[in-house]
Amino acid sequence: MAQLSSFIHELGAALKRKDGRRAASLLALDSPVGLAAHQLAASGRAVPAGQLAAALPEGWGDMAAALLRCLVAQHGGDRVAACKEYRDGYAAALASLLNADKGTETEWLIPLALGAAQGLKGLSEAADEEISRRGGTPNQLSECAISLQTFFRGLATSKSSQAKKDASVAVVCVMMKVYFRLNAINNCKQPLQQIEVSRLFDNAKQAHKVTLRYYTGRLAAYDEDFARADEHLSYAFEHCAASSPGNVRRVLRYLIPVKMLLGVLPSPALLTKYGLPEYEPVRRAVAGGDLALLLSSLEANQARFIQCGTYLLLEKLQAVVARRLLRKVAAVNAQMNPAKAHQVPLALLEEALRLQGIEKDPLELQCLIANLIFRKYVKGYLAYKSRVLVLAKAEAFPALSAVQLSDPFAG
């Protein structure tokens, strides 16, 4: 088979020269070697492991054979077998080579390692889809996460190679995508911390910086550190390539709720530009203190928000909207009764909610106000017997940046 012979010859030459870029292109899942695998699959012939072992440097014959078996399985529609061949036969051996030498001798393997990390993620996702269709429990992406950790160690723990340490950032970007896909968010913290401690972020490529900031921002939002989430997501938004509107939209899906929790509303033009119409009623609800509109918007778009992972963030806006409504009620009360401007009858808030179609009994209403006071959305106290909210005379509604946004009763 001429295609296979050409592949073996070119790969052998690249490996002997330690030409990592050329070897990576030859061993990529979308390289011309796929045609040779297709011919093998069509003819029913086995992968010529002996021929590969004889023509390639020690160890590489088995790795190339595993890659070909992966591609043959892929052509045959067996995505699970393809993933296992790639992970256990090719990627594992490559990671072992990286971990065996912590110096500069194996720097040429960096392009191969980065290609394998991306390839393994794609194969694992496809394999899990196949397992799900069969009615099984997906597990290949979890195995992928373990393999990526091995690649990360081989690069990040190098004793003398700065190039390896810098390359570890790219692997972490893949790891973040996998961990978030698996909902194993806490696993993100250790590699991100290692990048920070080793000061690798500054040397990273711009695309990797944006990816890291995006996931760091999402992680901060998950931890309810919204000021930090704003910092990282804003960086990702400002530096994301304009030629990738889809990526900008992904960032905005998290940045917009975080900004609104901090008191900054998106413009209608921004939502239109990036195709985020589901946030428009949420924006109006926050701006107008319309709790009913917020709740109906969350219900109408629940599936979409849950799929994007933003539903819990948007749910927290209920307190922001309630504060906005209370502030409007307090302003009306001040006009109606200037002498008692700081004494807001709960009946006024009760009526404002009723006008929105929301009924709350006295105890529920008092709990709502008490929660706003506890979280510092409002300065004041409740006079329970007279059913009056007594507002502080100075800064009764402090800046949202000073508010305790996290759940005081969590944990």
TrEMBL record:
What Pfam families does this protein map onto? Answer: PCI
- A GO molecular-function descriptor: double-stranded DNA binding
What is the top-level taxon of the source organism? Eukaryota
- Please give the name of this protein: PCI domain-containing protein
Which PANTHER family does UniProt cross-reference here? PCI DOMAIN-CONTAINING PROTEIN 2, UNCHARACTERIZED PROTEASOME COMPONENT REGION PCI-CONTAINING
Q: Which residues form the PCI domain?
A: 210-396
Q: Which SMART domains does its entry note?
A: PAM (SM00753)
Q: What is the source species?
A: Edaphochlamys debaryana
Q: Name one GO biological process term.
A: poly(A)+ mRNA export from nucleus
GO terms under cellular component: transcription export complex 2
